Amino acid sequence: MSEDPMTQPAAAQPAPQAPPAPARDHRVLRAALRWTAAVVAFAVAGAGTAYGITRMERTDVPGLATESDGRWDYPELTRPPLPSGSPAPFAESNRSGSHYADLRALLLPAPKGATQDKALRGRDGWLATGTFLAEYALKEERDDLRQKLVDTGLRHIAARGWTMPDGTRTRVYLLQFGTANVVENEFASDNVSYSVPGRQVRGVGEAVYDERFPDAAAVSGTERTAYVETRPYGAEQVRQAYVAAGDVYAVILQSRKGSAPAIPFQQTVVLQSQLLG
C-alpha cells in the first residue's frame, strides 16, 4: 500500500519498528494511543529530542476512503526537536499548553507540485501582522482584531501559502500567544459557538459551518471549527478553518475559482492539526 499524504508521519529520532497496520476501523484509535504513549515516554526520557507523528496510512482518516479522491501529495511530516528540558505541548507538566519548538518549523509544508507564495514568507519566517489582517474584508473588523492581538500578547505569526496547478490557493497562518488560556478564551470562542465565522474573510459572500467535515478526523489536543462558502459564490469559493492547539491558533484558508474541493481542504487542516496536536 502506498503512503497517504493525509497522515504520512515520521519520527525524527530512532523508534521501535511499528507493528503491521491493524484493520482500518481501528487504525485511527490505535495510532492516537501510540502517539499518547510517545508523549508520555518523551516526558520521562528528557529533552533535546524530536517528537514525531505516529505512522498512519492514507485511508485511515474517516471521510477520505480512496487514494484517487483528489488528495495532495504532501512530503513526509516530522515535528521539530524541542529545546533541552522543554515538555511537549500537551504533556501534563506543560500547564500553559506552550509549543516550545520553533513555530516556523510547525508549519505544514507545501504539497508536491505547489508554487510557493513568497509574500507569506515574511522576514526571517515571521509574518507582519498587517499581512495576516489583510485576509479580512472589513476595516472595522481588521482594526478590532489588530487591537485584540495587541491586548492578548501576540508573540509571533508564522505563515505559508501555495497555489496548486488546478488553481487552488492555500494560506496557513499560525498565531502564537503566551498561554493556551488566551487562545481558548479569546480566539477559539469567537467561532466555536457560532454557525457562521466571527469575521468576514475577504472574497467570501456567506459562509456556514461545514457539516460535512468528518468529525472522526478530529486530532487529539486540538479544537477545530470549519466553514464553507455557500452558493452563489463570487469569482471563487473559499473554505476556512480555525484550529486551537495549546498556545497556537491556526487560521487555514483555501480557495479556488469556481469551487474549492473539500478533500484537499480537509487533508490540509488535519495534517496541520497533527503537527500542532
Tell me what you see in this structure.
- The structure is a single chain.
- A seven-stranded antiparallel sheet has the order 1-2-3-7-6-5-4, sandwiched between helices.
- The chain is globular.
- It is 25% helix and 17% strand.
- By secondary structure, the protein is an alpha+beta fold.
- The protein has five helices and seven strands, in the order H-E-H-H-E-E-H-E-E-E-E-H.
- The longest helix is centred in the first third of the chain and has 22 residues, at 24-45.
Order of helices and strands: HEHHEEHEEEEH
**Distance between termini?**
26 Å
Which blocks of ≥5 consecutive residues have pLDDT under 50? Answer: 1-60
Overall structural class, as computed from helix and strand content, comes to alpha+beta
Give the overall shape, derived from the CA principal axes: globular
* Biggest sheet overview: 7 strands, antiparallel
What is the averaged pLDDT score? Answer: 82
Fraction of helical residues: 10-25%
What is the radius of gyration computed over CA atoms, rounded to a whole number of angstroms? 18 Å
Strand residues, percent: 15-25%
Give the strand order of the largest sheet, numbering strands 1, 2, ... along the chain.
1-2-3-7-6-5-4
Number of helix segments? 5
Number of strands: 7
